[in-house]
Amino acid sequence: MTASTEVSPTAAGSGRSATERFTHKERTTDIADPARVSAIASDAITALHEVIRKHRVDYAEYDALKAWLIRVGEDGEWPLFLDVWVEHVVEEVVNADRKGAIGTIEGPYYIPGSPEFRGEATLPMRDDEKGTPFVFQGTVTDLDGAPLEDARVELWHADDDGYYSQFAPGIPEWNLRGAILTGADGRFTFRTIKPAPYQIPTDGSCGALVRAAGWHPWRPAHLHLKVSAPGKQPVTTQLYFQGGEYVEDDVAQAVKPELILRPTPAASGTGEEVTYDFALDPA
Question: What is the CATH number of domain 11-20+34-283?
């Protein structure tokens, strides 16, 4: 678990942990050729020029922008800023041609290597885990509806207080994280609890932007998923809850109508359940 001197979890602590994780993430350094870098950078700078002209930005505002950009770096919040306000557009572009399951942002709290199960599972959780019991089930298929065997459905989410394991102190390492491999019928069933909404860190430069703009810092409650299968395109997504707080005004702008769940009372008589299927595009 990430080392921490905090005695209780905070949004700021979770944000710092997410930034620290990102700095150690493996990624390619061979991203693009110089012509593409030039085209993208030139367009981005030109767009900023147009914003300055449109709003007639003065030197006081320009100096405030420079000071804020410097603080973002000093606070280590560039990953937070980009994940909250930029990633959803990158995801939209990357997945524009998908015909099957709908994707959205990954966010900063993914950890590979969670416990793996076959067919159905209760996610690892504390004996006294707070929250409404929740069953999330469905089938993984190809675009023609044929079930996919050995599809991997990976699920992770916040707890009832809005914190993620490995990003806040006092939470077991793999709490509310796990993966299921489907059988020949393509089905999976997770038993877990419903997550809570949570706020992005507000004690640093991103919080300063939120306050200055009069925005709110909250994300709606959601389930994170990565779904993959041999010979198919993997999909990363988040699923939200109908009527939940902040679904209509998610600070990260990642909610899509196709990703909203409508749970019903569970057949067991305790908690809620929902069925949501994933159709995967060919690789």
Answer: 2.60.130.10
Q: What's the CA gap between 14 and 109, in Å, rounded?
A: 9
Output the pLDDT for position 241: 98
Asked whether the beta carbons of 215 and 100 are under 8 A apart, the reply is no
Mean pLDDT of all residues in 260-282: 97
Q: Cβ contacts of residue 224 below 8 Å, gap of 6+?
A: 106, 107, 109, 110, 155, 156, 157, 236, 237, 238
Paired tokens of 53: 């002209």
CB 263, CB 135: distance < 8 Å: no
Position 6 scores a pLDDT of 43
pLDDT at residue 3, as a whole number? 37
Whether the CB-CB separation of 122 and 133 falls below 8 Å is answered with: no
Per-residue confidence (pLDDT) for residue 30, from 0 to 100 = 66
